[in-house]
Amino acid sequence: MKYLLKKYSVIVFYSFILLGSQGCNKFLDEGNDPSNLSPDIYYTLPEHADAAIAAAYARTRFIGEGAGIFVQNFSMLEAVTGTARTETAQNSDLNNLFGLVHNGDNLLVNNWWNGLYNVIAQTNLVMDKVPGIDMEEARKNKVLGEAKFLRAWAYFYLVRLWGDVPLLTKPIYSSGDSSFTPKRTGSQAVYDKIVADLTEAEASGIPWTDASGRATLGATKALLAEVYLTMAGQPLNKGAAYYTLAANKAKEVISNGSFSLFTTYNDLHSLAQENKGEHMFEIQYLASVAGNPIQPILLPNFKGVSKYGTEVGSTVPTPAFFASYEAGDARTVDRQGFFYTSYYNEGFGPLKNLGAPYIFKHFDVVAHGTFNVEGTAQSDLNWPQIRYAQVLLTYAEAQNESGAAPNTDAWNALKAIRDRAKLATPALGTFNTASFRQAVWRERWHELCYEGITWMDMVRTRKAYKESNNTFEDFVGHVFADNGAKLEQKHLLFPLPTTEIRNNPNLRPQNPGYPE
Questions:
Q1: Per the omega criterion (within 30 degrees of 0), is the bond before 509 cis?
Q2: Beta bridge partners of 290
């Protein structure tokens, strides 16, 4: 989607209400007053449909937006897993998340809620207005399919983070609309709508792959597989039938052959490999329009290893999690796997030891610099949302849970992940359902770390990873190795933002365990 970012960099957004629809204008004629534009007179040309869906994609970038001093929103989903820590004490909202003492006043909680509903508002507007535009049907259907994918993507986050949430499927143009102060909808109905949106997106004519970064048929099926996997687990507990749905949908992706694991882990953060191969769906960044703002946040705290002048260390791996990888795991190889424990002085000078692990999976070498090559401090690097590795592990887990024991295909999926990590995989016959489940979970923790997935796995499995003995224990009562924070029942959901409850009493009651 890099071309969309360039093409629509002049889009002007018109916000109608917080949870309502938001229009966009691509071209502004000189002499026209933008304040006179409205959705009723704007959505008339095919280019307006393109601009509208581009605006929806742009809203997904809230994940990388700031949340106070030295923090970006993405950190919320990592802080509560026990696999990450912070090297800065200057942001109380972030510190409260790491300590599991957050409440509805937390800025990151508020930003996630508003960011997701902004995506929904824009996609609702697309689905309301684009059908009336006189344009080629296939082009129209693809735009609508992309909008349904993005709305499902946003609601899938919302229902997992907060449980029952308002289900808004139409634009809201007036405060007099009854949907202006919506009630929460039961989780089952929200999941049903997610499935419906993704099923309709599958039939919309979107292609299996798209190197520009648009939503694809492959990404849609992959997301649907993850939805079914989640529905099979907690809190809906739909069990074997939905594990079978998840396995079948993931198998469609695998069998198609359009996607594959990268040969090296460095390809995961290579600009040349964006939106292709293993990357099935990413949040798009382009420095000249909307650069990746997350890079300085992930750096060691003021250790001078980058062109960036700000080195924050707000979200970094815990030593215990780093040490939990198997001996010889290629994902732990310095500056070749997911981590680095040394880097070049100021990004391009002599190599120096850092004394702790840091996240290399998302490291933009061009922006930071490398040996004898000074960095640009401008990042084009996309942020991953769906990888083919996740599809393989989803298939392996779902197939195992839907049958009496893992089959050869499930074992091969697990083995592909471990082969790339240079790890031996026990023979298929050595596994039963329980032992294979644990093996897949360990790979999900170690392969999908720091991608906003671990927390979701903890909630749906009701389990947490205990690094000291490489096992899983109950979510409730699990103690983080790094800081001693303890997970409670209330942590299975995030608190609704306090401001939202005050503005809309229909959202009450607050999620259990949190003050209103």
A1: yes
A2: 286
pLDDT digits (tens, 9 = 90+) for 305-337: 999 988 999 999 999 999 999 999 999 999 999
Q: Rounded to whole angstroms, how far apart are CA atoms 500 and 492?
A: 20
DSSP state of 286: B
For domain 209-288+386-452, give the fold.
Answer: 1.25.40
Task: For residue 215, count CB atoms less than 10 angstroms from its CB and return exposed for 0-12, middle for 13-18, buried for 19 or more.
Answer: buried
* 19-33, 448-462, 468-482: least confident range: 19-33
CATH number of 2-206: 1.25.40.390
64, 154, 89, 31: which is closest to 383 by C-alpha?
A: 64
3-class SS letters over 205-226: CCCCCCCCCCCCHHHHHHHHHH
Unique residue bearing structure tokens 């997701």: 116
Which pLDDT tens digit goes with each residue over 368-400? 999 999 999 999 999 999 999 999 999 999 999
Would you say 317 and 298 are in contact if contact means Cβ atoms under 8 Å apart?
no
Q: How far apart are CA 130 and CA 140, in angstroms?
A: 7
CB burial class (10 A; 0-12, 13-18, 19+) of residue 167? buried
Model pLDDT, residue 404: 73
Across-strand partners of 14? 23
Backbone φ, ψ for residue 466 (5° rounding) = -100, 105
Q: Is the peptide bond before 515 cis (omega within 30 degrees of 0)?
A: no
Domain boundary assignment for the chain: 2-206, 209-288+386-452, 294-378
